[in-house]
TrEMBL record:
<dbReference type="Pfam" id="PF19380">
    <property type="entry name" value="DUF5955"/>
</dbReference>
<protein>
    <submittedName>
        <fullName>DUF5955 family protein</fullName>
    </submittedName>
</protein>
<dbReference type="InterPro" id="IPR045999">
    <property type="entry name" value="DUF5955"/>
</dbReference>
Length: 103
């Protein structure tokens, strides 16, 4: 089955939260790659998006690491309004995993 958002292939065994995260990360990576303006922390955003993608591909992302990556990405590209919608989608996807356990 193909999803219309990002045309990501969905398997019956993948956690839907992981699917949403992979779709959102893919979209932001594409939009960032196509964004013509350079900015100082672009490399940080690209590295953290790659880390999010790898965590999602593993199927069992660590919530504290997801949140740390999200904060770094937001800090790196937060002022680039053209990427705001895709960044919001990544935040929503990370939020699907809930809060990390407190201990």
């Amino acid at each position: 089955m193909l999803r219309s958002v990002g045309q990501t292939r969905v398997t019956g065994s993948e956690d839907p939260r992981v699917t949403e995260l992979r779709t959102a990360v893919s979209r932001l990576r594409r939009e960032l790659a196509g964004h013509p303006r350079e900015f100082p922390d672009r490399g940080i955003a690209e590295d953290e998006l790659a880390a999010l993608d790898a965590m999602a591909a593993s199927g069992v992302p660590e919530i504290p690491r997801l949140r740390r990556s999200l904060l770094l990405i937001a800090g790196a590209i937060g002022s680039v309004s053209a990427l705001a919608s895709a960044l919001r989608d990544v935040r929503v996807a990370v939020d699907l995993f809930g809060e990390p356990p407190r201990g």
